[in-house]
Amino acid sequence: MASVIKIYALFLGSALLMFGGGLQGLLLSVRGAEEGFSLLSLGLIGTGWSVGFVAGSITVPLIVRKVGHIRAFR
Known about the structure:
This protein is mainly alpha-helical. The chain has one domain (2-72). The protein contains three helices and no strands. α1 (2-35) runs antiparallel to α2. The longest helix has 34 residues, at 2-35. The protein is flat and about 50 Å long.
């Protein structure tokens, strides 16, 4: 029973992260269009956000491996 609760907690956390990422992408474009940004700038903002997410996903494990998890998140 305890392992089922842990798995549900993992799935809930993953679902919240996916929901937040999708909402972020949606709200960036909607708010940017409302503020009068051009389509090119909105595309560059969305692309930059995605590139930053991928770059962070690649570099953060390297930093954690190099300096340790305590110092990496200080």
